[in-house]
Amino acid sequence: MIAIQDFLSSPDLFLSLPSNDADILHELAKDYFNAPSEHKEKNKYLILSAIVNLTHNNPFYLNLIESCAKDDTMTKENRYYAYRQLIRYKFLHQEANTPEANDLLDDLFDRVLNEYETYLMPLCKRIPQKERSNDFVIVLTTQMLGMTHAPTKILMDRCYVLQKTLNKKIFIINTADVLSTYGQIPWYNSSIGGYIEELSSVDSIKYKDTTFSYFQCPREMPNADIIGEILKLVSDEKPEYIIAIGENNITACLCSHIVPVLTLTLTSTARIGVRTTFQATGKITNEDMTWLQKHNFPSEHFIKGVNTYAIPMQKNKYSRKDLNLPETDFICITVGYRLDAEVDDDFLEMIQKLAANDIYTVLIGDFNRFNDVCEKYSILKKYLIPLGFQKDLLAVYECCDAYINPRRIGGGTSAIEALSKSLPVLTPNYGDVSGVVGNDFCYNSYNDMYEEILKLAGNTSYLKSRKEKALERATQLTDSATEFSKLLQTMKGSPLFW
């Protein structure tokens, strides 16, 4: 079997690559092989990442992860940059989300973390509980954007509970290391995370009726020297514990050598083992237990609890007429930032069957494939309604009857917001949506979802009962004051909470 590294020494191999973008690969290969040797070393990951991004070949993806983990020419910053790009690829391509990929990404992150630990461990001295401040908590986040950004809403919701309900003084630190350009190497189709420059000059953030102390790291993260300053701050201020929002924050992992750190992950599907003291989870799987054994972590590392969400304020009231929707027909809705990739043929075939029964589907989000889809599924020209991005999603939900979710990673927040407006959610038994909405709203196949939608559309009393069930689930999922407090109590009662 051909390994991805073989392409770096054989120009002829590129001619055999199956790809819709073969010309791009061939041009990149020509530039690579015609360049001086120092150019080859600098651009090898441009070539390898292009092969993966254009062919979507899983064995090549695994080879690329392994290559990044073992390449001694990479700095720790280069390696972390590659790690984030590889995580991003897995998030966008469901076929890459395999146990083999997760294990290799674990190994890659372990090497990155070990390299940072080698540099910074002298600053990491454990502080016993009796010496820590009971009324002070630091909250770390990997990204801080606007309130339409689900992780930011989760962050602010948790901080609100900590400060308003639990009477903790909160200091938020944005480590700003999600898809930053720090340590950047040439990489095909690279992604850059959002960063609000204006927040670098503020020292507080207001949410609802509460103000929190705030510090934003420079864009050049994870910079070991800046992380060192945060470690010194933790050692000086002695918080009772630290909450980390987002997977595998280098700073949070290092802080866990000083005080206990609880990580609240943002996805339940693209498994990412977290190296902090604790990791909150809705359920512990066999794969999780295998991860614990591999990394020699105690079972108390995982803390079970309900992950809650913050629902934004609804600002508008729409009628179906306002949105140019049919007045009396049954309408399903699908929401996502990556609909072009997530709405695949299997999902479209289900929507086509619904259309044959006069059931409409609204798409919220960027969907550039609409014209191409309508050429293939002509009936959808009438029954598939793309509304683009909507600022007040709750107002749109009020004009629909059910939320239908494609097989994908992500989407949990939009589904919970749908539940809060009494919309039954229908999702395959896979992905973040299935993890948060619960078994009552999960289905084994698109055909099962199709049959359920027909039942909802044809039986008013049944639809009413499902709407009541949706609202009941939403109430639990938005009760952060209760559920997050329970999670923290479980953490503080753990033997790992020293």
Could you provide a short overview of the structure?
This protein is α/β, with parallel strands linked by helices and 498 residues long. It folds into three domains: 4-121, no CATH class; 127-310 and 480-492, Rossmann fold; 331-477, Glycogen Phosphorylase B (Rossmann fold), CATH 3.40.50. The chain is built from 19 helices and 14 strands.
Defining traits:
Rossmann fold, alpha/beta, six-stranded parallel β-sheet, 19 helices, about 500 residues
Would you give an account of this structure?
Helices cover 44% and strands 14% of the residues. The mean pLDDT is 92. The strands form 2 sheets. Strands 3-4-2-1-5-6-7-8 form an 8-stranded mixed beta sheet, with helices on both faces. A 6-stranded parallel beta sheet has the order 11-10-9-12-13-14, sandwiched between helices. The chain has 3 domains: 118 residues, no CATH class; 197 residues, Rossmann fold, CATH 3.40.50; 147 residues, Glycogen Phosphorylase B (Rossmann fold), CATH 3.40.50.2000. The N and C termini lie far apart (50 Å). It is built from 19 helices and 14 strands. Strand 7, helix 9 and strand 8 form a beta-alpha-beta unit.
